[in-house]
Specification:
Keywords: ATP-binding, Cell membrane, Membrane, Nucleotide-binding, Transport. The chain is about 35% helix and about 25% strand. By secondary structure, it is α/β, with parallel strands linked by helices. The strands form 2 sheets. The chain has a 6-stranded mixed β-sheet with strand order 6-7-8-3-9-10, sandwiched between helices. A 4-stranded antiparallel β-sheet has the order 2-1-4-5, covered by helices on one side. Bound molecules: adenosine-5'-triphosphate.
Length: about 250
């Protein structure tokens, strides 16, 4: 690994009662890259993701973003420091149009003063349209969010997550429940997103992550197993052993 590290964990452990779901995990994530966190069922992927995204703090260890220790920072502060996460369609207002959903998200990131000036409102409208273009929903701008197909709702959710122009985007299973066509559209979108920012995702679909990731982090039984490029991971004997018999 040669590039600048945007976020890292230092000896992160997470316990739930007497059970240790994550043990002493230290991982650095490179800036401007797409890194996927993989591992068999119960490996600790979601727990690790939740610690990175601030959903809950580690029992031990630290999370460092840039130079700042963000361990235990409340989730609502994350967008302000440049970290967004995309994992729930509940971020969307179903009875509002696609455009309104993005506009509301943009407004949430504007100061009141700026928002009411006619110039910034115009800017807001343009920005909303360009975000919709980015995620491939421009032609659905006037439709109600609830009328969109599942894959399109996830794309809208990503536009909402991008409204704060995050440096780091965290995605939990972005293609969950998607058809093959929707999965392929989402993969294209994720690759486009990485042109301007860092993306970390958790995903079960191995073929997908192998195809689009710059780097992979493999967890197993709550422990760090390996990190590297898709080729390095594909050829890693320990990883092969862990995935043997799985698909
Ligand atoms: N809130 C919790 N309370 C108790 N145990 C938990 C909790 N969250 C996770 N675990 C346990 O921690 C372990 C790791 O779970 P986690 O969901 O992080 O794994 P995962 O790799 O995301 O799994 P999957 O691929 O099945 O989604 C599992 O054994 C799980 O049962």
């Amino acid at each position: 690994m040669s590039g600048e590290i945007i976020i890292r964990t230092e000896a992160v452990t997470r316990r739930f009662g007497g059970f240790t779901a994550l043990k002493n995990v230290s991982v650095g994530f490179e800036k401007g890259k797409l890194t996927s966190i993989i591992g068999p069922n119960g490996a600790g992927k979601s727990t690790f993701f939740n610690i990175l995204s601030g959903a809950f703090p580690p029992s031990e260890g630290r999370v460092v973003f840039g130079d700042a220790d963000i361990t235990g920072l409340k989730p609502h502060v994350y967008p302000r420091i440049g970290i967004s996460k995309s994992f729930q369609i509940t971020n969307i207002f179903p009875a509002f149009t696609v455009l309104e959903n993005v506009r509301i998200a943009l407004q949430a990131h504007c100061s009141r003063f700026n928002f009411w000036s006619p110039r910034s409102r115009l800017g807001l409208e343009d920005k909303a349209h360009s975000l919709l273009q980015m995620v491939g929903l421009e032609r659905h701008a006037a439709r109600l969010a609830k009328e969109l197909a599942h894959g399109q709702q996830r794309a809208l959710e990503i536009a909402v997550a991008l409204a704060g122009d995050p440096k780091l985007l965290l995605m939990d299973e972005p293609t969950a429940g998607m058809s093959p066509e929707e999965t392929s559209a989402m993969m294209d979108l994720i690759v486009r997103l990485v042109a301007d920012r860092t993306v970390i995702l958790v995903e079960h679909k191995m073929k997908m992550v192998m195809g689009i990731s710059d780097r992979l982090v493999v967890l197993h039984h709550g422990e760090f197993l390996a990190a590297g490029t898709p080729d390095e991971i594909r050829n890693n004997d320990e990883v092969k052993r862990v995935y043997l018999g799985q698909h």
